[in-house]
């Protein structure tokens, strides 16, 4: 294990009153595990308490330097919010976050006292966090902005070490690209992601992610141009020829999201199970 590898269960100070505590759920989709952020001093706000893991939740309470008063989440996927109910039960903290939309990959146990609106600010004892609605990875995704430190908590909108999956119908590539672009308006100094390491060069990272998705979209257009009408399964290996086969089932979700974006823009058409370029949409 490299010296700087993320160790689940270890509280790490990364900025004044900002600490990372990674859950014990490392995996293909979660990298080293879900990052829970422990914020504040005497009064603590916990951001993304992670999966419903008693071990992790007890660890949060034990290692937090003060009383846990608030629990916030970025979105309600099963690796981010189910710990909220357990943590609230232990601490009596109040839950702030979006209600789960319909769908089987949603944490229906998450029942917030307060649902954020885009731009709404929350006074959390010694500091304020602003909700920034960033739909795309999930329709109810919020990043959380710590303006004085210039730190953006990005959840699964941006993770370190991997691009995120955009799984329709709740995931939406048009919305995702727009949400990425919008972040460039914030004077971000660092990003604290839901998975992986602290990101010190946020603008380069965001621009790189936008460019990556644009290149992927160009490959989708090229593949359809070469294949003519084709099923998603036939388009997939051409577009994700740089991605290991074992990840293709996941990549198929993001490919569908790209195709739906192109369809909405009038650049692709769907006929039954096959996709083709719209007239005049070739490169
Ligand atoms: Zn997610």
Commentary on this structure:
The structure is a single chain. The chain has 283 residues and is an alpha+beta fold. It folds into 2 domains: 11-200, Ribonuclease Z/Hydroxyacylglutathione hydrolase-like (Metallo-beta-lactamase, Chain A, 4-Layer Sandwich), CATH 3.60.15.10; 210-277, Arc Repressor Mutant, subunit A. It contains 6 helices and 14 strands. The protein has helices spanning 54-63, 83-91, 173-183, 202-227, 232-239, 248-264; strands spanning 11-15, 18-22, 35-40, 43-47, 67-72, 94-96, 121-123, 128-133, 142-146, 151-155, 190-193, 230-231, 268-271, 274-277. The chain is elongated and about 60 Å long. The chain starts with 10 loop residues before the first strand and ends in a 6-residue tail after the last strand. The mean pLDDT is 96. The site of zinc ion has 5 residues, from loops.
Broad structural category: alpha+beta
Structurally, the number of domains stands at 2
Give the biggest sheet.
Answer: 6 strands, mixed
CATH superfamily of the largest domain: Ribonuclease Z/Hydroxyacylglutathione hydrolase-like
What value does the Rg take, in angstroms? 20 Å
Strand/helix succession: EEEEHEHEEEEEHEHEHHEE
What is the CATH architecture descriptor of the largest domain? 4-Layer Sandwich
Average pLDDT over all residues = 96
Identify every distinct bound molecule in the structure, by name, code or SMILES.
Answer: zinc ion
Regions with little confidence, pLDDT below 50 for 5+ residues: none
CATH class label of the largest domain: Alpha Beta
| Shape category | elongated
What percent of the residues sit in helical stretches (DSSP H or I)? 25-40%
Strand content: 15-25%
| CATH fold title of the largest domain | Metallo-beta-lactamase, Chain A
Number of strands: 14
Largest sheet strand order: 1-2-3-4-5-6
C-alpha end-to-end distance:
45 Å
Count of helical stretches: 6
């Amino acid at each position: 294990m490299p010296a700087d590898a993320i160790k689940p269960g270890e509280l790490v100070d990364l900025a004044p009153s900002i600490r990372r505590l990674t859950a014990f759920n490392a995996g293909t989709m979660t990298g080293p595990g879900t990052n829970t952020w422990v914020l504040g001093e005497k009064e603590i706000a916990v951001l993304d308490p992670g999966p419903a893991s008693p071990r992790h939740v007890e660890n949060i309470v034990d290692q937090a330097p003060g009383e846990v008063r608030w629990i916030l989440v970025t979105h309600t996927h099963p690796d981010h919010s189910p710990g909220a109910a357990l943590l609230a039960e232990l601490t009596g903290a109040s839950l702030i976050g979006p209600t789960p939309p319909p769908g089987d990959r949603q944490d229906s146990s998450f029942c917030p006292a307060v649902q954020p609106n885009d731009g709404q600010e929350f006074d959390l004892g010694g500091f304020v966090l602003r909700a920034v609605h960033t739909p795309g990875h999930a329709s109810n995704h919020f990043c959380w902005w710590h303006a004085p430190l210039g730190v953006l908590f990005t959840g699964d909108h941006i993770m370190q070490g991997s691009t995120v999956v955009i799984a329709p119908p709740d995931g939406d590539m048009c919305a995702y690209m727009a949400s990425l672009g919008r972040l460039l308006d914030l004077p971000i100094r660092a990003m604290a992601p839901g998975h992986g390491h602290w990101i010190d060069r946020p603008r380069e990272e965001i621009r790189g992610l936008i460019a990556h998705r644009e290149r992927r979209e160009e490959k989708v257009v090229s593949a359809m141009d070469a294949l003519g009408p084709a099923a998603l399964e036939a388009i997939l290996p051409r577009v994700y020829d740089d991605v290991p086969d074992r990840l293709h089932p996941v990549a198929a979700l993001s490919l569908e999201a790209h195709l739906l974006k192109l369809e909405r823009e009038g650049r692709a058409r769907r006929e039954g199970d096959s996709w083709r370029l719209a007239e005049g949409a070739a490169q």
